[in-house]
Amino acid sequence: MAKNMIVAQSGGPSPVINNTLRGIVETARELSEIGTVYGGWHGIEGVLKEELINLTDQCPEEIALLRTTPAAGSIGTCRYKLKDHQNEDFDRIMEIFKAHDIGYFVYIGGNDSMDTANKVANVARERGLDVVGIGGPKTIDNDVGDSEFKLIDHTPGYGSTARYWSNYIQMSNEENNGSCPADPVLVMQAMGRKIGYIPAAARLADPNREMPLQIYLAERKVNIEEVRENINKTLKEHGRAMVVVSEGLEIDGLEIPEEFVVRDSFGHAMLSSSKITVGQMLVNALNEKPLAVKGKARCNVSGTHQRNDIVHASNVDLAESYYVGQKAALLAANGEHGYMASILRADRENYTIEYGKAPLPEVANSERHFPQEWITPCGTDVTDDFIKYARPLIGDNWVSVPVIDGRIRLARMKPIFADQKLDKYVPQADR
């Protein structure tokens, strides 16, 4: 007899997260083992509150439109962390599973989400419930998995954000080249608290290194005087300079006071939300002293459009995000509990990939780093090996986005929610 599925999302969204959701829903509809697919409205918080949107009964055309609907507005996301001591939350989730005949739980997200998927499914099994727990990878940071790329080669969302930065740098180069007599230095801050895959993608705009471009990754702590010297050297050579910095870059002499840092419920610094950003601090410091050429530095801090711009999405990323969602649904239907659907590179010379599975405990306890050997000795660039790795992920052609009457046609889910069978509940950490 078919059991129902809950799929939910956690953490920051991506341009292609909805296509993973689409892959799960469309595949589950064709599998006799899976009954109704419910979406946890705003992640695990929606599951706790018994806010379950029926995705199976949505119009197929709306589900299809998830392909080019970015971010997480379709079923929402959250930053609620299930901690081991929150026994009431785990009890509540088990009650939800029983009340709605749930046999499959799929959580889309990063390392913390994989940890949640693993915990929830294991607790269910310990309590005698036949629930299959599956993870769906998602993060624009590309930090899920291991640094040897054995658990997963890359995560859906990264390719599109990398493409965004490739395009953004090319356009910024035109701006900087034209306005350099007044604004010779353009500092651009990219997302990436601890890992440099996003700012590194700036190099994809200029693989032959023809632009006056410097890239500073969070992995390499720098000194303000060293940065100033690097920039002035570029100004003397080219008359202008473009500088990309990780939002989590540590610069000796420009430390951000902890009281100015905003943190989410996971304890992660939300650096673009903080009162002072690294990019603006660097610009302020550069403008305190005369530059090697006349003019001033200016700062652009890219916000959440890095992860919700469907126009700059990668066709490769869109395709892979769908099939990894399909793989997640197939793993669930086959009863392969405790795995995350994964993307593995089958041929590194001629880019081809295959879809596999990685044990959730290994993913949840892993931490990917940007390879040190992909950072140039000078610390202001990335190597050709990184370009070789990342170039296939951004694709070539533009995504075809449906437009009606001049407006993007986005998916719109009908508010078809499961009947609430249990008493109201306030998540434990919100009390």
Write the layout of secondary structure elements.
Blueprint: E1 3-9, H1 17-28, E2 34-40, H2 43-48, E3 52-54, H3 60-64, H4 87-99, E4 102-109, H5 111-126, E5 132-137, H6 158-179, E6 185-190, H7 197-200, E7 213-216, E8 222-223, H8 224-238, E9 241-246, E10 251-252, H9 278-287, E11 297-301, H10 315-333, E12 339-347, E13 352-359, H11 360-364, H12 384-390, E14 403-404, E15 407-408
Parallel strand pairs: 1-2, 1-4, 4-5, 5-12, 6-9, 6-11, 7-9, 8-10
Antiparallel strand pairs: 2-3, 12-13, 14-15
Helix pairs in contact: 1-10
Write up this protein.
- There is one protein chain.
- The chain has two domains: 3-157 and 311-367 and 395-430, Rossmann fold (3-Layer(aba) Sandwich); 169-306, Phosphofructokinase domain (Rossmann fold, 3-Layer(aba) Sandwich), CATH 3.40.50.
- Helix content is 31%, strand content 18%.
- It contains twelve helices and 15 strands.
- The protein has helices spanning 17-28, 43-48, 60-64, 87-99, 111-126, 158-179, 197-200, 224-238, 278-287, 315-333, 360-364, 384-390; strands at 3-9, 34-40, 52-54, 102-109, 132-137, 185-190, 213-216, 222-223, 241-246, 251-252, 297-301, 339-347, 352-359, 403-404, 407-408.
- The protein has a seven-stranded mixed sheet, with helices on both faces. The protein has a four-stranded parallel sheet with strand order 7-9-6-11, with helices on both faces.
